[in-house]
């Protein structure tokens, strides 16, 4: 009998026993891998930062067929490190989120005002971002310097609606009233700048004007000038001429005017005065004589401040000519005209 015949083929029973042992070993290997991976999965599930990486950890915990198993001690040691990294991540995110809300730097403290160079000048502080200094009192002059906010400037001179100022570093220029209206005084209040033209109108002294109207039914032209004594009283002198059909008349009178609301744009006034009246008849009239008489005047009128230095006025007057001791004649007149003051 040959050796092959002595060995002979394996029985079906022995081959089935070998496959059973291999299957049992595979099941035990998978069960051990799942037991090792379960602590890592629990640690990853307890932290939101690690939850996203849980599938990857689980897949790495289950080795491929034929790979060596991962020890349980190694997987358990890596779980606390992953949890710690998940805790650090929200803290870092909170720190980066709070960075844009850092405290802004405090503005510089206001500087005390310097000492004024003259008693007539006044110190104010710039509150706007800047003001522009020009070489002369008008918008036609060029800008040569810009003074920044919080600088102190000294107001030295006024010319109509422009002010000459001096900066802290001795720059001298002209600034409009509109730019100075927002400046601050040394006490911290807003500086008040009234309209310069209105101030000139309120402080007017001498006024000259002309008016046209009617004296009785004849055309009349008059010129007048006034001098202001106080806020409500003024003297006014008037000369006039009336050109009639049959005669001409010259007159003059001096009045005392009362203007109770002289600080208003529309201001009524009242006046009384005395003067002279002279009538010249035409030479073509036979037997006509020249009349020379004393004159009394009573007036009421109103003035309206227009702009710059111009004022419009209108009045109604009652003239009484005392031709003789027993005779007097009354004349009514109205006029409207324009005047300017200085």
Task: List descriptors.
alpha+beta; four-stranded antiparallel beta sheet; 3 domains; 342 residues; Porin; disordered N terminus; 14 strands; SH3 type barrels
Description:
It is built from 7 helices and 14 strands. With 342 residues, the chain is α+β, with helices and mostly antiparallel strands. It folds into 3 domains: 25-81; 122-193, Roll (SH3 type barrels), CATH 2.30.30; 203-341, Beta Barrel (Porin), CATH 2.40.160. Helix content is 26%, strand content 40%. Helix 2 (12-45) packs antiparallel against helix 4 (54-61) and helix 2 (12-45) runs parallel beside helix 5. The strands form 3 sheets. Strands 7-8-9-10-11-12-13-14 form an 8-stranded antiparallel β-barrel. The radius of gyration is 54 Å and the shape is elongated.
Query: H/E element string?
Result: HHHHHEEEEEEHHEEEEEEEE
Distance between the termini: 157 Å
The domain count comes to: 3
CATH fold group of the largest domain: Porin
Rounded to an integer in angstroms, the radius of gyration calculated over CA atoms is: 54 Å
Any low-confidence stretches, pLDDT <50, length ≥5? Answer: 1-19, 39-102
Identify the overall geometry.
elongated
Q: Based on the coordinates given, report the CATH architecture of the largest domain.
A: Beta Barrel
State the helix count.
Answer: 7
Short summary of the structure?
This protein is an alpha+beta fold. The chain is built from seven helices and 14 strands.
Topology:
Blueprint: H1 3-7, H2 12-45, H3 48-51, H4 54-61, H5 72-98, E1 122-125, E2 130-134, E3 143-148, E4 152-159, E5 162-166, E6 172-176, H6 177-180, H7 196-202, E7 206-215, E8 218-228, E9 233-243, E10 247-258, E11 266-281, E12 291-307, E13 310-322, E14 328-341
Antiparallel strand pairs: 1-4, 2-3, 4-5, 5-6, 7-8, 7-14, 8-9, 9-10, 10-11, 11-12, 12-13, 13-14
Helix pairs in contact: 2-4, 2-5
């Amino acid at each position: 009998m040959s050796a092959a015949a002595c060995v002979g083929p394996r029985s079906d029973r022995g081959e089935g026993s070998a496959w059973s042992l291999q299957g049992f070993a595979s099941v035990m290997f998978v069960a051990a891998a799942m037991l090792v991976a379960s602590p890592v999965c629990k640690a990853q599930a307890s932290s939101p930062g690690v939850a996203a990486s849980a599938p990857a950890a689980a897949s790495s915990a289950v080795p491929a067929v034929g790979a060596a198993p991962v020890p349980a001690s190694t997987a358990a040691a890596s779980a606390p490190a992953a949890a710690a990294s998940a805790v650090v991540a929200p803290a870092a995110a909170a720190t980066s989120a709070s960075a844009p809300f850092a405290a802004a730097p405090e503005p510089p403290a206001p500087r005390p005002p310097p000492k004024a160079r003259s008693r007539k000048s006044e110190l104010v502080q710039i509150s706007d971002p800047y003001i522009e200094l020009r070489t002369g009192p008008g918008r036609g002059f060029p800008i040569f310097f810009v003074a920044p906010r919080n600088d102190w400037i000294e107001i030295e001179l006024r010319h109509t609606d422009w002010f000459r100022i001096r900066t802290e570093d001795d720059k001298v220029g002209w600034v409009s009233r509109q730019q100075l209206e927002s400046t601050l005084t040394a006490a911290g209040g807003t500086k008040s700048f009234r309209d310069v033209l209105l101030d000139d109108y309120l402080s007017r002294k001498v006024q000259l004007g002309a008016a046209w109207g009617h004296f009785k039914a004849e055309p009349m032209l008059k010129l007048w000038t006034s001098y202001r004594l106080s806020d409500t009283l003024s003297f006014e002198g008037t000369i006039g001429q009336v050109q009639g059909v049959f005669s001409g008349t010259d007159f003059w009178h001096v009045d005392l005017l009362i203007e109770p609301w002289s600080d208003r744009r529309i201001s009524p006034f009242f006046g009384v005065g005395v003067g002279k009246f002279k009538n010249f008849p035409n030479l073509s009239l036979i037997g006509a004589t020249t009349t020379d008489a004393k004159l009394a005047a009573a007036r009421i009128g109103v003035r309206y401040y227009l702009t710059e230095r111009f004022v419009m006025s209108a009045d109604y007057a009652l003239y009484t000519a005392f031709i003789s001791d027993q005779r007097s004649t009354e004349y009514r007149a109205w006029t409207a005209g324009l005047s300017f003051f200085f």
